[in-house]
Design a protein that fits this description.
- The protein is built from eight helices and 17 strands.
- It is α+β, with helices and mostly antiparallel strands and 355 residues long.
- Strands 1, 2, 3, 4, 6, 14 and 17 form a seven-stranded mixed β-sheet that branches. It has a four-stranded antiparallel β-sheet with strand order 5-15-8-13.
- Helix 5 packs across helix 8.
- The N terminus is likely disordered.
């Protein structure tokens, strides 16, 4: 392990960029959300009619034409990738659609933002965020399959995109934090710990191991690339990797650094809470925003239970990334972007029910 870096040795910059925002100031802003108009909804439904029963994997932006809405979707994409890093598109009348229809709409809109990549070892390019009764303490359980609180974390794609089909009876609130702001506050308060998070932390692959890779990997939570902070952070994956004998032990300095990251992310002075209603589509750039969810209680009736659809999108015009992101961390798409989770012999599928 590298030697501990003393505070007096640290000279890290404060990054002034659109990604360095504070939650309370965003609460009064309105340019990170937009409500679809009736003509725009009609255009979406026209595209849905046009694709008919085409296999969802065969639907691209050309097959789901949105000529009037496309310019706005392009501006949203740029704001998410190169601006503040998140957006909320509201007003889709989700009650009109079956799950299959909602999935095609979500996929078709998403195709205008990026290329869907696999989210797990089953090859799911359309994900279902739903409590399957799994135990989050299980080293191979993913948090989205439980009702547990999810600490602030990032996913393995350029953009994570969620469509709310149904919300829970209580809880399950969505929260975002700017990881550039977390970095800046760490530099101001404890530059030595910011430097610790610029060194690799080892994470489990949750049993979803790509060809030729180990069941764990190391990557720095913070990297500076072209004057921008690039972040990847999943503390639960770090903690569960400690169950593997081959993984280096977490040092006290690393533990303290992660404690500070989590404390800052959970500080109401930094993060942004938002309501997430049926028909809302939330986008976040994984490289500059970490997301969280509170624990929730669901309805007893299966047909009423909380259910979100999810896309992980690769974007060919996303921010420059450290080489490790498409090296040690994961593979890459044809355009050179992070390609999610690929396991040998597993084809891409878009299930219409949670598995």
């Amino acid at each position: 392990m590298p030697d501990t870096v003393l505070p007096q040795q640290i000279d890290l910059p404060i990054i002034d960029s659109p990604q360095a925002w504070y939650g309370p100031e965003q609460q009064t802003a309105s340019d990170w959300q937009y409500t679809l108009t009736a003509p725009e909804i009609a255009e979406i439904e026209g595209a849905l009619t046009q694709v008919g029963a085409v296999d969802i994997l065969d639907i691209d932006a050309a097959a789901f034409p949105l000529p009037n809405l496309t310019p706005r979707l392009g501006k949203i994409r740029q704001q998410v990738l190169h601006g503040r890093g998140f957006f909320l598109l509201r007003g889709l009348p989700i009650e009109r659609y079956s799950v299959a229809e909602a999935a095609r709409i979500f996929w078709g809109i998403g195709a205008h933002w990026g290329e869907p990549v696999s989210q797990n070892g089953k090859g799911h390019v359309l994900g279902h965020v739903k409590d399957l009764g799994l135990d989050y303490a299980d080293p191979q359980a993913r948090g989205y399959q439980t009702s547990a609180r999810l600490p602030y974390h990032t996913d393995s794609s350029d953009i994570v995109c969620l469509l709310c089909l149904k919300k829970s009876r209580s809880g399950g609130l969505s929260s975002l934090v700017a990881t550039t702001t977390v970095f800046n506050e760490m530099v101001r308060r404890r530059p030595d710990l910011a430097a610790v998070l610029m060194q690799p932390l080892y994470r489990t692959r949750w049993g979803e191991v790509p060809e030729g890779r180990k069941p764990y990997y190391g990557t720095p939570p913070f990297s500076l690339v072209d004057g921008r902070v690039i972040c990847t952070y999943v503390r639960s994956a770090v903690r569960k990797a400690q169950l593997m004998d081959a993984v280096p032990r977490i040092t006290p300095e690393q533990e303290e650094a992660m404690d500070l990251f989590d404390a800052l992310a959970n500080d109401p002075a930094l993060h942004l809470d938002m309501t997430f209603e049926p028909g809302d589509i939330q986008l976040a750039c994984n490289h500059s925003v970490a997301h969280s969810r509170t624990a929730y209680e669901d309805f007893a009736e299966p047909e009423k239970r909380r259910h979100l659809l999810r896309l992980w999108l690769a974007c060919d015009d996303g921010p420059a990334l450290p080489a490790a992101f498409t090296g040690e961390h994961q593979g890459q798409t044809q355009s050179g972007r992070p390609d999610g989770i690929k396991v040998p012999g597993v084809p891409l599928v878009a299930p219409l029910e949670a598995e």
